[in-house]
Design the sequence.
């Protein structure tokens, strides 16, 4: 019987001692499954900036306490949906950065910028994520708003 312990990028195999093995390809080559199908009716896969953005988006929507074994995992954006004040923007920026550093440390996130605007009288929160890549820095954007029926709408651009 083998006992495995996974920590960050290493696999520790316990059998008469511990051996450290490097696992997985570079973060930019990893593939993240999406909950949709592609034009060939196959599960859609994301990589690079699209995958990183999706993983951070998952953290943004996940409520803290959703996973009892990891009670701090998640930001719970719905807690911020009615309150787009400057203090909230600073708090949300810090939460995204902290969650990424804690739960997704391999993602090369270099910065988070959050702004607010209005469209047809509805507040819109824009979260811009910056990533370090081989050629420099690239970004993705997430726009969030609350509909008149109190649904949280979002659009992602990468």
Sequence:
């Amino acid at each position: 019987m083998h006992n495995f312990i996974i920590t960050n990028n290493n696999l520790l195999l316990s059998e008469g001692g511990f051996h450290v093995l490097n696992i997985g390809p570079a973060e930019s080559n990893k593939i993240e499954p999406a909950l949709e199908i592609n034009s060939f009716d196959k599960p859609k896969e994301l990589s690079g900036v699209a995958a990183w953005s999706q993983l951070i988006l998952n953290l943004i929507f996940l409520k803290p306490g959703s996973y009892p074994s990891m009670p701090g995992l998640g930001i719970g954006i719905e807690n911020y949906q009615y309150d787009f004040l400057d203090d909230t923007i600073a708090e949300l920026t810090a939460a995204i950065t902290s969650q990424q550093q804690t739960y997704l440390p391999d993602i090369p996130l270099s910065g988070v910028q959050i702004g607010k605007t209005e469209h047809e009288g509805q507040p819109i929160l824009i979260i811009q994520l910056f990533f370090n890549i081989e050629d420099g820095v690239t970004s993705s954007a997430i726009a969030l708003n609350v509909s008149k029926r109190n649904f949280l709408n979002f659009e992602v651009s990468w």
